[in-house]
């Protein structure tokens, strides 16, 4: 893993490097709550199990659906943070986009967030205006990890067959927390090793040396055959770089159609912080291309 940032990503040097932890979590949640008070969704639907989805509808008849899962290390975040992205996809590809407001850890550890996501997927697939054969699951960071687990869960339950996993720098392997060669703070922007240990501990209810259910961390699942094709994008300066490349290789070995996009010199969440620089535009275009290809082919 390299820590040489792309020179165009100038804002990286101004990003806070403090870790999310038990002392800072209430403050971070409070600040995000103030910043993200109004949704741009067309509606918010409460599902049978109590989870909610923020729903974005296209102007015309939908071609399919996207179940989107926000990031935040399993402990913070809201669908509202992805409002512009969900609205763009709904309009650009004529999709019904359902962004899941899943329950957060540590109050709700695994499997509650994943089951909330499955409830959202089932709701989306059951809509009369959504083609159940054209449903994509996707997410960023922890949301990408949940989307990867959701694709495996959908395969195992056999009720819904997503046509694509759209995974932006997904958080797929808790065992990264056991590595001793990773910088504990300063080098990684947006999400560092200390935050990672805290997020996984909250989600798992234990540290990674304990008994971890495979579906809680998709990289632990032994059999990945038969899951939906995947697009994975990650930067070389992202804490998740190594685990994402390893997961992509395992998907490929299992016979899964996988497209991997690696952004040189990019940190975690760079495309959201600095969307207009070349490396971010290339990342976004690659993600759009993956979605366009599968929607045209489905």
Automatic annotation (TrEMBL):
Limits of the Alpha/beta hydrolase fold-3 domain: 66-270
Top-level taxon of the source organism: Bacteria
InterPro entries: AB_hydrolase_3, AB_hydrolase_fold, GDXG_lipolytic_enzyme
Signal peptide, first to last residue: none
Keyword Hydrolase (UniProt): yes
Hydrolase keyword on record: yes
GO molecular function: hydrolase activity
Alphabetic keyword roster: Hydrolase
Entry-linked PANTHER family: AB HYDROLASE SUPERFAMILY PROTEIN C4A8.06C (PTHR48081), ALPHA_BETA HYDROLASE FOLD-3 DOMAIN-CONTAINING PROTEIN-RELATED (PTHR48081:SF8)
Name listed for the protein in its UniProt record: Acetyl esterase/lipase
